[in-house]
Amino acid sequence: MDSTVDSIEAAYDALLDAVAALIAEPVRTTGAIQDLKNRLDAFHASCDRADDLLRAAADRVVFTAADVPPSPRIDALLRAVQDIAHHDHHPPPPQDKAPGDQHHNSS
Predict the structure, then answer these.
(1) What would the pLDDT profile of 2-29 be if each residue is shown by its tens digit?
(2) Are 44 and 69 in contact (CB under 8 A)?
(3) Where is this region: Disordered (predicted)?
(4) In degrees to the nearest 10, what's the CA dihedral of 91, 93, 97, 102?
């Protein structure tokens, strides 16, 4: 898992470097834009690998929990993993609010 996190961190750092390089150029070159695209693709790939690892761990927890007598701690762990997996597949919708609607109470 540590290597997966390190991979995401390295890909993210490289992506930020590519963005900084693109912004620093007075004229956007095809090479800088392509480098940014490549770094973004690498970042997405590292996130996908981490997602696969999380899914495999969640499946393993579910499988293991099926063979273990009921326990509040295992149930809590299983619910937490399922919640993470659910939020990964169903992200909350964006909340577009007008500046004046932020403090609106619906009573």
Answers:
(1) 788 888 899 999 999 999 988 888 888 8
(2) no
(3) 81-107
(4) -50
Torsion, CA 13, CA 15, CA 17, CA 23, rounded to 10: -150
- Encoding tokens for residue 37? 């695209």
Place of tokens 């809590």: 76
Q: Two tokens at 53?
A: 């690892």
End-to-end CA distance of the chain: 46
Contact 11, 46 (CB under 8 A): yes
| Coil, strand or helix at 107 | coil
Neighbours of 39 (CB within 10 A): 21
- pLDDT value of position 92: 58
